[in-house]
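quick one, 90 residues, struct below
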Amino acid sequence: MHELGITSQLLEVVLKRAAAAGAIRVSDVHLEIGEESDVAPQALEHYWPKVSDGTPAEGARLVFGIAGDPWACRVVGIDVPDPQPEPPPG
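---
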């Protein structure tokens, strides 16, 4: 169950990065998880929809990589969709 807390903390990082980038939506979240971290990617995927509901990260895909630090669990990047061009007036 500790993955629920970890997922919530990861969301906080994602939202801060999105706000700093001026993004209104996040499409992908890139994570690195160390092999000794005892964090299960499947559990993060399970909790992600619940914790991200109603936020700019709602519906974002989690993309996992292996961290060089065996104990790490961190956000290494976010992807934001290209803004849609404004339709011409009139």
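The first strand starts at residue 28 and ends at 33.
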